[in-house]
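[audit] Reproducing an earlier prediction to check determinism. Same input, same settings, fresh worker. If the tokens differ from the archived copy the diff job will pick it up downstream; this log only records the rerun itself.
[audit] input (225 residues):
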Amino acid sequence: MVEDNADLAANVSDFLETCGHTADTALDGLTGLHLAVTHEYDVVVLDLMLPGIDGLTLCQRLRRDGESAVPVLMLTARTALDDKVAGFASGADDYLVKPFALVELELRLRALARRSRGGQGGAILKVGELEMNLDTFGVRRGGRVVVLPATQMKILELLMKRSPNVVWRREIEQSIWGDSPPDSDSLRVHVYLLRSALGGPGAPVMLRTIRGVGYQLVDPDVSPT
């Protein structure tokens, strides 16, 4: 947990340990980044306003420089949609607004850790030029590597498995978040960022929104039937 409020960090850590978890804490961004890249954690809980480097920069550097896919939950008092978009764009997988219930936080952390350990070893999913290795969770479109945080990876996995069928929005939410879905903006933001990551200059759109229904991943070179 990276949180500059020492009392809050201690309270959360104590609660998580009573639930059977082991928690490390950092009170500034630089220390948090060092811990995150030098240890193997199930989940990182990250505040946005931090001394040293802020939470958005920390998450970006963790994904880009540290090449880490560890699930990240941002814990912040910022409630605006633009703040959530920035958080997810930096590589976060979930977003919880302060004040929060400790029980809800622990449930979200369990869900993130469970999803990140999921997958079917040895399988490769393919939709057109898009490939996902379910053993390594590496993603490529053509010859280009696509780097995704854990939540967008799981959304893509579900869409690839069901392609070219449309997957209902509520089915995606249930698959990703179970019985504790976040606010209604979260899935839309994740899909927007996933579509952007899969795209490129002149690349046909593969991830389509079916208004009022859900989402569909298609091979743009295959004519619809």
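[audit] rerun output stored. Observation attached for the diff report: DSSP finds eight helices and ten strands in the chain.
[audit] end
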